[in-house]
Design goal:
Organism: Plectonema cf. radiosum LEGE 06105
Oligomer: single chain
Pfam family, one: DLH
Number of strands: 9
GO molecular function: hydrolase activity
Number of helices: 7
Strand order of the largest sheet: 1-2-3-5-4-6-7-8-9
Shape: globular
Keywords: Hydrolase
Order of helices and strands: EEEEHHEHHEHEEHEH
Protein name: Dienelactone hydrolase family protein
């Protein structure tokens, strides 16, 4: 584990073992942070993307939250995925590894007291919802951005975690599936936010900044250390 300190922020590069698979992750912890948000990436590209690093910075600066950028696929799986897209579209695989990574955080002394949130885009959003639905005691908040929620509809009635669904106004197919998803989720702490003039990728001026603002507000609300309703415990990833 490599650790550096910069501007009251602790940064670590770690290897997280999930079912004998080693996943590389970058953990950044502001001093006295209240919770920690795991970004659901299916490849290393997501971990280094400018957009996701901007969002992680916003969560740390505006909400005082730690962030985890993790590759849920190994380099070998990524190489295979370039040809087949089999692994990155396997929502069950991604959600199982996400649960394993969350268990690792709970058992790590530096992060064990922090509430955990999930942020995922598209397939990653579906994986985040599936992981939260299958293990409601593990996670305190979820944000799914343009999530492929149709892949998880069979378990959404079990979802008890506060959930924010974000879609672009011009992404009509995703709006329809996310509206259906909202109806299936039983918790009252749920919301569907539509960003004006935005497409699925949120590349329009100001669109992803709005994604960051909404996500930061949601995680800050539900991962607050002053809320004693949620106490994470290690759970099975099976």
């Amino acid at each position: 584990m490599n650790t550096t300190f910069l501007h009251n922020v602790e940064e670590k590069i770690v290897s997280i073992e999930v079912d004998s698979t080693h996943l590389e992750a970058e953990i950044v912890l502001p001093r006295s942070c209240q919770g920690i948000v795991v970004f659901v990436h299916s490849s290393g590209i997501g971990r280094y993307s400018t957009r996701n690093r901007y969002l992680a910075h916003m969560l740390r600066q505006t909400a005082g939250l730690g962030t985890v950028q993790i590759d849920l696929l190994t380099p070998q799986e990524e190489a295979i995925d370039l040809r087949s897209r089999h692994c990155s579209s396997n929502v069950k695989l991604l959600s199982t590894r996400l649960i394993g990574a969350a268990n690792w955080l709970i058992n790590n002394p530096l992060t064990s007291d922090l509430k955990i949130g999930y942020f995922g885009e598209q397939t990653g959003g579906g994986a985040a919802l599936l992981a939260a639905a299958e293990n409601p005691d593990l996670v305190g908040a979820v944000v799914s951005c343009s999530g492929q929620t149709c892949l998880t509809s069979s378990v959404l009635s079990n979802l008890q975690t506060p959930t924010l669904l974000i879609v672009g106004e011009n992404d009509l197919p995703t709006i329809a599936t996310n509206e259906d998803t909202l109806k299936l989720i039983k918790t009252s702490d749920k919301e569907l936010s539509m960003i004006q003039n935005a497409s699925r990728q949120f590349k329009e001026p100001g669109a992803f900044e709005e994604v960051a603002r909404l996500s930061s507000r949601w995680f800050e609300k539900y991962l607050s250390i002053n809320d004693n309703l949620f106490h994470p415990t290690t759970v099975s990833s099976n």
